[in-house]
Amino acid sequence: MKVPYNWLKEYIDIKLSLEEIAEKLTMSGLEVADIQRLSNLNEFVLDIEVTANRGDCLSIIGIAREIETLTNKHVKYPQALKKCSANKEIEKLIDVSIKDTSLCSRYAGRIIRNVKIEPSPSWLANRLKAVNIRPINNIVDITNYVLMETGQPLHAFDYNKISGKQITIRRARQNESIVALDESKRQLSRDMLVIADEKAPIAIAGIMGGIGSEIDKQTTDIFLESACFHAGCIRKTSKTLELSSESSYRFERGVDPNGVVSALNRAAYLIEKTAHGKSVREIVDIYPKKFNKQNIQLRIQQIKRILGIDIPKNKLKCIILNLGFEIKQDSLNNIRVLVPTYRRDIRREIDLIEEIARIYGYNNIDTTMPRGQTSSCGKGEFEKQTDALKNILSSCGMAEIYTSSFTNSENLDKTGLSSDGVKITNPLGDDQNIMRTSLIPEMLSVIKRNLNRSLSEIKLYELGQVFFENNSSYHEKTYLCCGIVGNVSFFDIKGILETILYRLGIEDHCLYYKKHRVFTSDCSASIDIQGRNIGIIGEISGNVLEKYNIDEKVFLLEIGFSNLSKYINLSPVFKAVPKYPASERDIAFTIKENVSNADIMNIMWKAGGEIVEDIKLFDIYRGKQILSEHKSMAYSICYRSNKRTLTDEEVNQAHSRIERKLISQLDITLRK
User: Fold this and answer.
1) Angle between helix 300-307 and 313-322 (nearest 10)
2) Residue among 395, 526, 378, 410 nearest 459 (CA)
3) Chain centroid to CA 341: how far?
4) Of 138, 153, 332, 347, which one is least surrounded by beta carbons within 10 A?
């Protein structure tokens, strides 16, 4: 916001130097980034950075009000035409209607006849030059001048170019377009608000007028518009059309609905003075639902609790009044405050307290350490589990990565995973339009980036959130994904999995062959714990690797850590040294290739009974001596009882039961 110093001094009596004013504004939250000297205009210009919530400061008078608060000087408001009655004779001259009051809360206008279009006087042109606005003609320049002066956008239409003398504020219709004042044709959509006559749009509401109703040298009568449009609608339209203006910049940050008519009258006054026009006495003013002042109760104790200081009540009331607020009620513990409608950023008690702190001066508030109560119970169980998991993975030589939870459908489609992620209503970009349902796509992207940097041995893991939608409810879960590349095989990733499960105290786990679209058909398995699937492990398929341009083999596992958590036991488990000796037997057989180790183990555990202490697979052989589509497998079975020494007869009986069950259920051929 550029503020010419001499222009500012017309509204408030400033006794301080330029530098002192800049310092006070900066310390109150309106940073003066620069002070420029314009020698050709004999002017100094303050370049003030206004935050997005302070739309009321996007005008010279708005800055004057801030200085009024800081210096106890009163603002002198500029001269305007006197208030006029509304909607009487003027209804015969122009018919105005609002079709969507949710997007236009107030619309006012007045007709000025017999204006003379000519270049602006030098004082007006120089004021606009000082704020980087190019002078055009006296009518357009006055609308821009009042915009900079009051913060209220205005627009002037050539009255005689308004078809049917009818103004309608409505949404754009299907296939409508408009040639704006920048001479570019823009296609409109139904979510955009337009100002239309009886034939077509003549302006994009709050952003820019149309060339068909512009002011030119032949203009004699004008219709002057002053309105309040919906901030979100203006911003969306401006972004969609890639068209912004000084007006749209202010509407996006909110204008004061109760300042609409005063700005209109101010502009009419200046037009009569500089363009020889004569205003029609009445004005159009459609204001369906009046915007009232915010009524906020301020608790004295709440100020002390939030700011940590005692501000004397007299000082407090002085700050409130200097801010331009009204004190409606004053009791011992509370003050009821009315906030003017131009301060649309003050809606709650906490906003009011922040405003008091700003004016009181943050530098006047003593620095103290925050006080409060903290929990003494330490980390929760889930935090302890994740800490333990990270320690285990670090001991396996894995490096942790963090990736974004936002992704896009294309990234999930590359891996063949479901792209039905949680969709973002207003994404930052098309590449981040959904929440991820798996960690695998981002893991592959990170592996690719590391390979591009000539890293041949890669061991990575991520513990992150994934998101699901189910019947309009949303769920968030913690997943673990590990990926390895280099001189490794499936047994390396399987070893990492077994290390994780063993050190987390999880014993009853098993891998079952299971086809998965991400993994190769002959190296893919589900991870089961106590009969419940909690993850997937395998070698990434060639089709997926090709889409990521990865030439190396990638082995990967993904586990639902939220599901795994319930099986974790971080407490050490001690076992007594066996009192009685063990007896071991081996069994070797040929079996069809498609029978899994998990199925074989299950049968042996059940058939062997309680005296089976351990079963280990120690050999797999495939070769010419074995029938095609068969394999040879050899297991070592350990038998032991905790109650007595087992006899050979007991062990042989149990071993024979295992052999018979394997023969009857899996059709094995024993190797002697």
Assistant:
1) 90
2) 395
3) 29
4) 332
